[in-house]
Design goal:
The structure holds two protein chains of two kinds. By secondary structure, chain A is an all-alpha fold. Helices cover about 70% and strands about 5% of the residues of chain A. Chain B is globular, with a radius of gyration of 21 Å. The chains are: A mainly alpha, B mainly alpha. At the A-B interface, helix 4, helix 9 and helix 11 of A face helix 6, helix 12 and helix 14 of B.
Chain lengths: ~300, ~350
């Protein structure tokens, strides 16, 4: 019984990270039909920002304040990743609208450059980020069953982000503009919406979310320049499975893939687990090729 | 106005020049460099198949490393069994296997290995193609799925160490068909066989591209719905070209492995798969000669730069990728055609 609860919890924990990483990607792809292969590198940037924040606190501030660095690191990671995303959008991405295949290739080039940059600045070996003291230990449910606070914090963070995105997308004027451009770009332009600006800040927000995901990942292990590549394909799978452009789709896709991954790995071994998840995804796509929840339109190619 | 026939003739001329240079290369290059060229030729064969499916049909397959790897592994299994002389290959004994697994046994025959090198990727491509294209999974979704396919196979091959050699892959071959692999005349023969295969592949691809099927593939790239409304079934053509490109990739893998001496799951992953696309992108997609030029040129550059400055290579290839995709969508060949076209029209203007 206890192993089942622990398994389910692990599944939700893995799903939460996937959802956080995939949120920005799904919205960017739904909006601009641009696939950002450098999304993994934004995760990496967020993680490195957390590392830098930790070093700043250690160097300049009193030891007792060390625990606070993490609280500040989250918005810092969001802003730095968002800023770099904004710059990237203005220079590279905006030439690639509606050329999704080319966007894969160009952003892959960007990811190579960013990875090499990280290697040059921080060095090739992984670096460790010491998690703040108040996240140590876990919630003791019963004898022998402990849910680590770190993972609980990540799940809470992801839920907060999802709520934040929901409020942004569905309850604010900005969100209405974003949704309008997502559903019908030409019509939104005709209505007077500045699509260039919407694209720019949506991409920045998506990259910022990836930064927060990176910040969360520092709690789980050491970080290095290849952090992004470990998560990028799974993130894409979440987008493909969940359908593009809806929060619910991304959340559902992430949950499904995360739990399927952990469950199948538990019953078989790691390699067979991943293979089975892939086969399940292909089988699912036979039934619903556009993913779980998608914005359906009457245009033949959408 | 550039004449289409003249352009095609020029492409054939460029190809013949390349082949001539390759044939004469052993005269003025060291053994090591000739071996490298043989590797590049294998890549060129792979690139042509990739150009067929991406440049002509518009399907971006980011997992072609799988097909290349499967072909290479088939050949490698034969070579490994040759080196073991009837006993158990080394990695199997130290992984705890006691007898040769049943699916390894037929690979003692070289013809079987070669057949499997082409057949296995084709069958896999057929399955994947059938399941995806039939459901009209297109564009980005297909690319992502092909990437996932690549990762799956890497994970599978790394995990099943006893059967596939794990992360180390298959290496330590001694002979092929009885000839020693370290003998330089064997290496030279393999080199010339690869050139022969390159010529055959080019001829085959050119033949296909000139006929109606080539036109239909281009039509699928430019407007799949119109192709469907005109009465053709794009799914059949897409599956066909996917299988063909997989077969060519498998063939490339089979000729790659005896010359390079090792195959590991790293060559099947997403990074090498995207690099294959880079070759075609830089050379010029949609032109077969562009694929050949791109493969040989980019890999030559990579060998050159990585030998001296490994860090620089990542920056270089990253930036080149961005620049080529954004500003030179038709690659080097497209650039040359544009320049030649400009020169010709300027000369025509000065005449009138």
């Amino acid at each position: 019984m206890q192993t089942y609860i622990l398994q389910i919890f692990n599944g939700i924990s893995v799903s939460s990270i996937l959802v956080l990483a995939a949120l920005g990607l799904a919205i960017t792809f739904g909006l601009m039909k641009v696939i950002n292969m450098a999304h993994g590198e934004f995760i990496m940037i967020g993680a490195y920002v957390t590392y830098l924040m930790q070093n700043l606190f250690v160097a300049y501030l009193d030891k007792s304040l060390f625990g606070l660095y993490f609280i500040l690191a989250i918005p810092a990671a969001f802003m730095v990743s968002g800023l770099i995303g904004f710059v990237l959008e203005g220079t590279v991405i905006r030439h690639l609208y509606n050329r999704p295949l080319d966007s894969i290739l160009a952003t892959w080039g960007v990811s190579l450059v960013l990875q090499q940059l990280a290697r040059t600045i921080f060095g090739a070996p992984n670096v460790d980020v010491k998690s703040p003291g108040w996240l140590d230990g876990g919630l003791v449910i019963s004898q022998g069953l402990q849910l680590p606070y770190k993972r609980l914090f990540i799940i809470a963070l992801v839920i907060a982000c999802i709520i934040g995105m929901f409020v942004l997308l569905y309850k604010s004027k900005t969100g209405r503009r974003i949704r309008a451009v997502m559903q019908n770009r030409e019509m939104a332009e005709s209505m007077g919406i500045n699509t260039r600006r919407v694209d720019a800040y949506t991409f920045a927000v998506g990259s910022g979310l990836a930064g927060i995901a990176g910040c969360a990942l520092t709690l789980l292990g050491s970080i290095g320049s290849t952090l992004g590549t470990n998560y990028i394909v799974d993130t894409f799978m979440v987008v493909v499975l969940g359908g593009v452009g809806t929060l619910l789709g991304t959340a559902a896709g992430g949950l499904l893939i995360g739990t399927a991954n952990t469950t199948l790995e538990f019953f078989t071994n790691t390699s067979l687990g991943k293979v089975l998840v892939f086969i399940l995804i292909i089988a699912f796509l036979q039934w619903r090729p556009k993913g779980l929840f998608n914005i359906s339109s009457r245009a033949i190619d959408e | 106005m550039p004449n289409l026939k003249a352009m095609k003739a020029k492409e054939k001329l460029v190809f013949s020049i390349i082949v001539l240079v390759l044939v004469l290369a052993p005269l003025f290059l060291t053994d090591f460099r000739v071996n490298l060229l043989g590797k590049f030729i294998a890549y060129a064969i792979l690139a042509m198949g990739l150009d067929l499916i991406w440049g002509f049909t518009g399907i971006l397959s980011l997992g072609h490393g799988v097909f290349f790897g499967l072909g290479a592994y088939s050949m490698a299994m034969y070579l490994k069994l040759e080196a073991a002389h009837g006993r158990l290959p080394d990695f199997m004994s130290w992984s705890g296997l006691e007898a040769l697994p049943w699916f390894w046994k037929p690979f003692t025959n070289s013809a079987f290995a070669l057949l499997m090198a082409i057949l296995v990727p084709t069958v896999l491509a057929f399955f994947v193609g059938f399941l995806t294209f039939k459901n009209r999974i297109r564009g980005v979704y297909f690319s992502i799925l092909s990437q996932a396919l690549s990762i799956i196979f890497v994970v599978l091959f790394v995990g099943q160490q006893a059967y596939t050699g794990g992360t180390n892959g298959l290496t330590n071959y001694k002979t092929i068909l009885g000839f020693s692999l370290s003998n330089s005349s064997t290496k030279l023969t393999l080199y010339y066989i690869s050139i022969g295969l390159l010529i055959l592949t080019y001829a085959l691809c050119n033949f296909l591209v000139k006929r109606r099927i080539g036109r239909i593939l281009v039509a699928i790239r430019d407007g799949e719905n119109r192709v469907r409304f005109s009465g053709y079934n794009p799914t059949t053509y897409k599956i066909f070209v996917y299988c063909l490109s997989a077969a060519l990739a498998g063939l490339a893998g089979a000729i790659y492995v005896p010359q390079v001496g090792i195959i590991s799951p790293a060559e099947m992953g997403i990074v090498p798969s995207i690099e294959m696309i880079i070759w075609v992108a830089i050379g010029g997609r949609g032109t077969l000669i562009g694929a050949v030029i791109g493969a040989i040129f980019v890999n030559g550059l990579k060998s050159g730069i990585s030998e001296s400055f490994p860090d620089v290579w990542s920056y270089f290839i990253g930036f080149t990728f961005i620049v080529v995709v954004l500003f030179m969508p038709n690659g080097v060949v497209g650039l040359v055609k544009k320049i030649v076209g400009n020169l010709v029209s300027r000369r025509l203007k000065s005449l009138s």
